[in-house]
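Hi team,

Filling in the usual template for the complex we talked about on Friday. All components are listed, including any nucleic acid strands or ligand strings, so the model treats them as one assembly.

SUBMITTER: L.P.
PURPOSE: interface mapping
COMPONENTS: two
RESIDUES: 680
SEQUENCES:
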Amino acid sequence: MEEKELPRLAFFSFTCCEGCQLAVLSCEDELPDILSLVKIVNFREAIDQKSDDYDIAFVEGSITRKEEVRKLKKIRKHAKIVVALGACSSTGGLNCLKNRFTMDEVKREVYGKDAGKSERFDTLPTRAIDEIIPVDYYLHGCPISKKEFLHLTTSLLLGKRPDIPNHPVCVECKMAGNICVFEKGMTCVGPITRAGCEAICVTYGAICWGCRGLVDNPNADAHAETLKRHGLTVESVMRKFSLYGACKTHKC
Amino acid sequence: MKKDLNIKIHEITRVEGHGNIVIDVKKGKIKELKLEIIESPRFFEAMLRGRRYDEAQHIMSRICGICAVSHTSASLKAIESAMDIKISKQAELLRKLAFYGETLQSHILHLFFLVLPDLAGVGSIVPLLTSHPDMARTGLELKRLANDICATVGGRHIHPISLFPGGVVHTPKPQELKRLREALEGSFEGLEMMLAFLNDHPFPEFSLKREYISLKDRGEYGLYNGNPVSSDSYAFKPESYTRKIKEYVVSHSAAKHAKTEGTFMVGALARVNNSYRQLSPRAKAAAKKAKLTVPSYNPFLNNMAQLIECYHSTEESISLIEKLLLMGPKPEPVKKPKAWGRGFGVVEAPRGTLYHEYKIDKDGLIEKAVCIIPTAQNLRSIEDDLRALVPGLLGRPKAEIARAVETLVRAYDPCISCSTHIMDVEFA
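RESULT (copied from the run log):
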């Protein structure tokens, strides 16, 4: 195949830790194969080349600045397909925690009396990218799952619709053979959180923190029932969910 | 000789995060020289306010995808010092193993993916897959092994799961640890390959005297444990770091800068300079082969120091695994908090000394958080180096100067997302 015929992939990063780009670089076994099937034209963390000509744009990070809004709109114009890469991009992620305060307060907390000194310190309330542009596909999670990234990428290259889970984490947690977090006396938001992570956090001894956002139609009544059975309240769980859900839960 | 020069490198590539280099020389004099940090501010200190203590390490890990274990470790140390929690021996060994795994993963990523292309004269690892297939494949294999170490202990490297206040909530199986030990023992060959390559591609001759700060521990090479020491012969306790290290705001950077009395550098070169004698045997042998003498004032050699630390981290990981296997790892309950108040946590992240400080109230909620990030501490040193380096290059073609300048910045392995934990993105 001629090089110019290869599909062109671009990776962009906004306000985030760049961990999802790094998760892509962590596909050590698959990278050489992927690179023989596509041309990566933007990936600042790993390559020098920069181009505005691309088919699929992977966008990582949430939007917290005016320049980012402008750049994001430009990406939408250039790309045939836009994929939100990770929690910050798809739901706003942890960055939403700062929306609990006014932006002046947030700036003062970090930069003190110098907060007004440079426009570089300016910040807008955190937004997911679909609050600004239409998004074609979402890779959820903080960080993304490598397996899901590879599945979505190969599907798109083959012209198939990727299968993104819309069932709760509990399903995968049962399949992983874990003891339910509630049985261990802890609180978990797995029953209403979108799966696709194979319940890795519970498997490794923690709880589901809700990083993948809500399933499309969360069964709130059944979840409230579970909580009641374990002597917990909706409020105590909402507090946990507010870690990742602060932006989107307000809209629900 | 060329007297005027105007360089603006927009969004330097192969570094973590967004930064520009601006250099303006008029009539042979530097008018303007700065490393603009344009990453979006994140405001983690504000994000942490009012959250429960056992969410802190989870939130702070998200400061950085590359040094997630370091942030988690510093965060846990701060929480545990504030709440008077003593973790078990097994938990300490597991945490250290994940930590060495991250040191390895970060250095390997930097050397094979970000620096090697410079040495081979290409733009990324992609062409290396065909031009230097052995090196590229070795890099990928070593990186996967480092990821595996973190994943075996913490569930994954990027944002580890099982490192919790009071202990470690997952116990690796002995056969998993044995498999890692075997892979680690076989990995020195790959490091030797990189060492030979670096010896064949000498770093630029450049030297600028400065202060080096790193952690130093009595019992071991200061990475996970220790108190800060300076090459200027003074030491300080983590709790008095704000008196020694002054952060200040500059308008061209969304990351704060830092100074002591003057400029200082942190990171692999600082550590090798300050704690050379405590390096593991193979690390010392590698330093000898590389003809690295300490103290070295050449920032380009930070990359060699990173490779030396790869040897050290590999040997230390093997010895940690042996200790764990001897104990026979078993599940343990996490230790509960006994107090509240202020706490400090400090570790050597791959890029240098990382400080976390929290104030936790009696309900276990975070009242105040402060972090000082390695890259922020190095920004002043990078600008000093550029100021010293550029005048000697003025006769060369502009593209060559730009390349040299980028290579220097990259040698520091700056982690801009981290440095702007609190901070800015600008695009063309």
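MY TAKE: Chain B has one domain: 6-419. The two ends of chain B are 32 Å apart (CA to CA).

Thanks, L.
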